[in-house]
Structures are given as C-alpha cells and as structure tokens.
Amino acid sequence: MDDLDTGMLLSDASCYASSSSTSTFDGGRLWERSPSPPIRFKEKGTTELLELPQELLYHICTMLDIPEVLRLSKTCKSFFQTCSLRSLWLNILDELDFYETPNLPSHLPLTSYSTAELKRRAINAVLISKQARGTAPMKFTRLDTLHTSVRFKRSFSIFRKVDPFLLPGGQRMLVNNYGQLELWSIGSDDRDHRCIWRTDSSTDEMDVVAFNGEVVDGGSAVMIACVFVDRRHTPPMLRVFRFDESTQTCSVVCETRMSVYVSHVLMIRGNYVLLYQLQSFELWVLDWTSGRNQYVDFKDQKNQTFRIRSALLVENALVVTGDTGKFFGEGTLQVFAVQPQHLASSSTQAVGKINRTTVQVKHTEELEETKDTWGLAINAFQPFWRRNANAPIELCVVALKVLDARNLLMRSYRLQVHTPEADTLFASSTIESLKLQVKDVSCAKSVDYPVAGALSNAALIFTLQPKFKCFAAFCDSVQPSPIDLRGDESIGAITRTSNYSVSIEPWSNAISVGSEGMVAILRFD
C-alpha cells in the first residue's frame, strides 16, 4: 500500500484489502478502518473497462470523492496510474468544499508542491473536516514544544505574558516574550528549535504590545509589524521589519509614530498595515512602502456610524464587521469590504497631526441582530488553487448568542468577496464596496465558549479550558467536540496556569499556546 494513503482513510470508505476491521499507524496517529468490501471486477468486465479511452477513465475518476479514488487506485495498475496523475489531484483540490481547506499557504505557488504532496494535503483537508464535524474525538498528529528564555520582569513592563504566533508553512514562529519579540525557527525535532532574531528592548526601554507577520516572496523573507509602547506614555511607535532568510538578518523598512493611542489589533498583508480598536469607530491604514496613512471611520448606506467589531486584510481587500447600534453589540451585525488603497492618504502624516476621513460605503451585508451576542470570529482567505484565476475571497463569520446561563447559539455565515478586475482609485469620500454574497448560513447549539477570534480557514475554533475542544462552523450537531490528546500533559501544564495566550494558524489549524518559559504547538496535519 502507498505510504501516503496509509492511515489517511475516512471512516466510511476503507482503502481495500479485507472486509474485517483493522487498524494502521501512520505519522503518529492511529485510525480504525471500518469494514468495507474490496472493489473487485470480473475478469471480462475489467478488460472491457480498461479498453475504454484513457480520457473517459480519467473523467470517471474526476467524478469520485477522495475515498473512492483511493480505493479505485488499488484495483489495477491502469487505475493506479490514472489516480496518480497531477491533473486529477488538482481537480480534486478544486472540488473541495470551502471548509475542506488544504494547507496550501498562499506564499508558495502550486508548482512548488510535488504531486504526492498535493495528494497528501487534499486527503488531510477532508480528514480534518470530517473529524471536526463527526462524533469521534479529533486527533492531533504532532506536538512541538520550544523553551523560551524567562525574561526579567521589569517593574515598568507593559506586556507581561508569552504570546505565540505560528506563521503559515509551520517553519517560523513569532513569540512576544514579555515585551520582546522573537522569531523562532521550528525544526522537525524539538532540539532543532532556535531563536534566530529578537528585538532589542535594552536601548529604548520599549515593549512590543502588538505584532503580526507574514511569509513573503516564496518563503525567502518574513515581514513583521510591531507596535512599541514605553513607560513614559509617549505616542506608540510602529515599526515594520523585513527578515531575509538567505542572510538571516533583519532590517527596519518603515518606522512611524502614531499620533493617538489605540488598542492594538494589528495585521500586515502585502503593502498595508491595519490597526484598529475594538468597539471603536475608526481604524488606521498604513502603506508601509510609501509612508502614506490615514485614520478612517465609516458610515453605512443609511448614513449611520459603523462601530468596528473585527477587521482583517486579505489579498487586495479590507474586510470589516461591526454594527450601527447605539450601544456595542445591540445593533445589526453588518459586514463590508473595500480596497485598502482607497483609504490611504496621498500625503504622509506628520507627527502630532491626524489625517482623518469619514468614508461612506455603498454596500454592507446585514447578517443578524447582535443583542446579547457574546463573541464574534472572522476569517478570510483566497483559494488560489482554484482553476478560476479570479476566485472570490472566502469569508467566514461566526457569532455566538447567549440563550440562557448554560446554552449558546452558534451561527455561521459564509460569504464571498468578489474583487474587481480593474483597480481604480476613487477621489470622493464615498467609495465602492467590494461585492459581497452570502452563500451559506448554519446554526448550532453550543454548550461552551471558544477562544474569541481564533478561527481557521477550515472554519474551526478551539477552547482550552477546562479541556481542549473543537468548535466546527457549518455543522448542525451540538458544539464543541473533544480533542484526543492521548494523555499528553505538556499543554495541560500550560493551560493550568492563569497567564497563557493562544493563537491558531489558519492554514494548518495548528494551535499555539504560550506561557512563561514555554510554547506548545499542537498540529493536526
């Protein structure tokens, strides 16, 4: 049996071989195969089938789901060859459901993956989705741990915890270690983990209070954005760094003082840095390549001020969710998308001055009344592996509404953001919103609270206390479902502390948990 297929089979379609229940072990996980009869052809029927044109056999394979393709590949050499074609697995990837998102980070082109790797990632995407939305506990494949230095706790330190952020690809991790940002190389073994760069907090006595990063240029560089704050309460400093993988050096490419203090919800994507304050009316957009920046608040199509509850950058779009109620969380949840270059000022902002503009968006998508809503999670990605070169951005919004003391309602929305072919700047304060379409809505009962905001591309959210559990959007069964930790105590030791941080890497669904002196990475791929 192909090593790639072993242990990757779904419970309702075993790979072939025997009708008795067996188990296989692969990559650290144990799967039970359900009884399933092998695919068998009568000799004459097989001959007649294989005499069909190759194009027709290939077309038959494209109409099968992954378990059927894997079973068919075991029947004979001809089907094995057909089921191993790169074009077939590209077609399978194209047909995956939107929450069966493969771990294919956008900084790497599809041509960089072998056919075997595309096959493995397609199988894993379906397997993870099926586990998360099934009845059996979700299983993880690997636990990485790295030991950070225990920093001296200065009396004036502002940031007093260990906050991890695993970058797409799983090879680099940013860790805010009590105000000092560190970039770690994550090897295949815990002994290979090492810190390869850190900020110098000894010179200006400034703490990193917010950070974000992305892998760019095919993995040859990492862009890092940090907000620094010091004890003298001077205006915060934003710095953008570029870490070059070939030279293992890091340089500052942009530095600017922020004229007002804002809560630090930070994101860097492409040329833009986004910063906004929860429950506020404004956000800040910076083009770090030119220094142009702008404070922006919004009004919806009814000319009502829009209160921001969440925002993110994805490809060439800024997606914002919020409401227009008099009080936070008591209006109508709305979402809109615009292109960030429409918001950046044409002139550089001077220190001490504020460039501010109010923008009226022409279109918002109303989702639901937000009264008694406890939390909100939002995530977006563009499925670049689709055959459609201009595939829409997939947007997932999850809102939790309190029903009573012990029950919540988890409502999931799938939207698509369509970006225009042409990129035209608008001169007026009224700008075109990108087109939004609600594609799917789901509702489920929940008996627990997830970690707010930590939503993966596969529409999964997690909770850590009192136990690890997984919330799956677009699933009708009661949430959450358990995660099988196989008796590992490392993460339990972290989450039993009162001061820990958690994040999720959207592409791989990997959970990162940080506490003083230690970071754990729970992987599912």
UniProtKB/TrEMBL annotation:
Record domain F-box: where: 46-92
Domain of life of the organism encoding this protein: Eukaryota
Any single Pfam family the record assigns to this protein: F-box-like
Name listed for the protein in its UniProt record: F-box domain-containing protein
Natural source organism: Schizopora paradoxa
Classification of source organism: Eukaryota, Fungi, Dikarya, Basidiomycota, Agaricomycotina
